[in-house]
Amino acid sequence: xxLVYTLLRSIAVFLFMMFIIRILGKREVGELSSFDLVVxxxxxxxxxxxxxxSELFLSALICLASLIVLQKIFAKLLLHxxxxxxxxxxxxxxxxxxxxxxxxxMKKESYTVDDLITQMRENNIMDIRDIKLAxxxxxxxxxxxxxKDFNEIIxxxxxxxxxxxxxxxxxxxxxxxxxRRLEEKKLQLKDVVYASSNGKDLFIPQKV
Length: 208
Hints:
Elements: H1 2-24, H2 26-29, H3 34-52, H4 57-80, H5 82-89, E1 93-97, E2 100-101, H6 103-108, H7 113-122, E3 131-136, E4 142-146, E5 155-159, E6 162-163, H8 165-168, H9 175-184, E7 194-197, E8 202-203
Antiparallel strand pairs: 1-2, 1-3, 3-4, 5-6, 5-7, 7-8
């Protein structure tokens, strides 16, 4: 009989977790950031407790429901506060620019040349010299752009009303220059959700 109860609890937790994943959104089922990974690990651990111990089943469901609320609150905060997003999720790091390695960043991220070569192959790039731009994402994946497909480097320079200091240096821009261009467009920095640049022009998408 206990086996039947365990099976029923497993089915209930499975259905509840499917509901949770659906509620959390597509962000959770794609490539995981550090924050996403912690959330899903806790969910898995709590679910296991609910299945194995009948007396903890209801408590486990309540805990899982609480995690949904917590994740949603954090997701809203991360959307509006870039500083908090940087602390929780980290930020992408430029590893290669025009075939040149950024050793300082690689050392800081504990990212080896072997790691780079492996992920280059996954991006169908044979040699570092062929890379126009390679970015180590917050989930540990490498996004690489081949020189033959991309003629210029375009990077985000503003996110959630904040200038991204790490990227403007690769484009030869300064904060003063960004602010001047915003003034020309009659825009204030705090009102700009996203902007990118190729070092010459400032691109700001229109809001729907």
